[in-house]
Specification:
Blueprint lengths: L7 E6 L14 E2 L2 E2 H10 L6 E5 L3 H9 L19 H16 L5 E5 L8 H13 L5 E6 L10 E4 L2 E4 L18 E10 H4 L10 E5 L11 H19 L1
Parallel strand pairs: 1-4, 1-5, 6-10
Antiparallel strand pairs: 2-3, 5-9, 6-9, 7-8
């Protein structure tokens, strides 16, 4: 890897099954499939050298091909269940590209299809975080959350609620609580050598790249799908005006 120009493989994992929103990955969102937003983001990022789709669905594969991304394999069944760890699918796709195409990346950046508001600049920021901090095995995108475990998040002990994190000094305003960041599934990234060692997310030494809250909206429910549609319409209106 050159110091300032690591080779970057983007993986986009899109299973056929979706529990929260039916056929979410290829569902039309303002006239194009949800998958298209993530593919276009990767295609327009100057830091990305190669894109690979990992899916178990022929329908999703066909959609990806119409968007200009070849899908030369289908994900093995054992990596495509609702309980399968995503990191296994990412590693499988990476090894396939290496062994079949001879492309050996320095960084592997996974983009979640459920985060369509992510711009290419977020990918660039993650890559640059690796460049600045050579000790990191992985980098995840994060944002400042609406809730804080030191102030307004609780867990239950029987019928009693208690703060998830108890501050040393009681906090009476959210603004005074220790700063925390919420993980966005938008981007998870690894140094290539670290990816072979991990069995789950956050294993190893991790860094974080903070992104604007509006870039990190995840679609896991029907309400969130409609919310993202609303935000995209607002973006389109602001550009036109």
């Amino acid at each position: 890897m050159t110091q300032n120009k690591p080779s970057v493989l983007v993986t986009i994992c899109a299973r056929g099954g979706s529990q929260g929103v039916s056929k979410k990955n290829i569902r039309p969102l303002l006239g194009k499939p949800l998958l298209a937003y993530t593919i276009e983001c990767a295609q327009t990022c100057a830091r990305v050298d190669r894109i690979v789709i990992s899916t178990d669905s022929e329908e999703i594969a066909a959609t990806a091909r119409t968007l200009g991304v070849p899908v030369p394999f289908l994900r093995p069944d054992e990596l495509a269940t609702s309980s399968s760890a995503k990191v296994g699918a990412i590693r499988h796709a990476t090894q396939w590209v290496e062994h079949t195409e001879g492309f050996y990346p320095d960084l592997v950046v996974d983009l979640d299809v459920s985060a369509p508001l992510r711009p290419p600049s977020d990918i660039t920021a993650v890559v640059e975080t690796f460049i600045r901090h050579q000790d990191l095995d992985g980098v995840v995108s994060v944002y400042e959350p609406e809730r804080n475990p030191y102030f307004n998040m609780v867990e239950m002990e029987g019928h009693r609620a208690r703060l998830v994190k108890r501050p040393e000094i009681p906090v009476v305003r959210r603004q005074d609580a220790p700063k925390v960041l919420s993980v966005s599934g938008s981007i998870f990234a690894w140094r290539r050598e670290a990816l072979d060692r991990v069995t789950h997310l956050y294993e190893g030494v991790w860094g974080a790249c903070q992104v604007p809250r509006e870039n990190a909206v995840d679609i896991d429910t029907e309400m969130e799908f409609q919310f993202v549609e609303f935000l995209l319409r607002k973006r389109a209106d602001s550009i036109q005006n």
